[in-house]
Every structure is written in structure tokens, then in C-alpha cells.
Amino acid sequence: xxxxxxxxxxxxxxxxxxxxxxxxxxxxxxxxxxxxxxxxxxxxxxxxxxxxxxxxxxxxxxxxxxxxxxxxxxxxxxxxxxxxxxxxxxxxxxxxxxxxxxxxxxxxxxxxxxxxxxxxxxxxxxxxxxxxxxxxxxxxxxxx
Length: 144
Hints:
single chain; three-stranded antiparallel sheet; globular; disordered N terminus; 144 residues; alpha+beta; 6 strands
């Protein structure tokens, strides 16, 4: 268990788990921080970030998203799109055609988030070699 000290002195227990081979921390924030945590959980989610980046250049059909987001399952993509739509970041437009066509597109709020996500992508791209080197050093120490 991890205890997080907030600026106001509140202490909260967190949970530590494994995700993608890296330790993942989740901090359950007290009352007044709960709404912020909910938003961060949505926008910080791996699949949400990839959906936002994929929709950055315009609307996409479900199948296009599934093809472009490597490794996402149908269930996870559907859940992610529903969550992003619920939070006002993505719109879903159903076209009355045969077969039915559904397009997903970033809203103004989603485009605003896109600039932040693009910054994260840029940082990750710029520092990938450094992160990989740090991982290799860490792994070597752990095996010694």
C-alpha cells in the first residue's frame, strides 16, 4: 500500500498494481479531489490517449480506429469511446445508410485536450531512448 500526502496534509491510501510490466499507482483522493480524479482517470487512460491522438486529424469510423490503435480489443475500444462521449470529449454520429455508418470525432473540449496529449506524445518521442536506457539499467540491477 502507498500513502500519498496531499498539500493540505491529508493522507490517503493508494493501491499498487502491475500494468504493462510497469508498476501502476492509483491514488484514491479524498472528497474534494474525487471529481478531479475521475477526469484524470479518463484522460490519463492508455486507450483514451490513443483515441484522442487518432481522432486529432478528423473523424474516423469505428473500424478505422480499431485498425489504427494497435492492441486494443473491441470491448476496450467500445468502452473507451463511450466514456469519452459521456465526458464530452468525443461525439458519435450515426448515419442512416445501409449498412449503418458511425463516425467518431473530437468535440471542442476534445481538441483542447488534444494539445496536452500531443505534448505528452512529443515528450515520449523525444525521450524514448533515455527511458529505454534507464529501463535497461534498472533491469540489469534487478538481475544482479
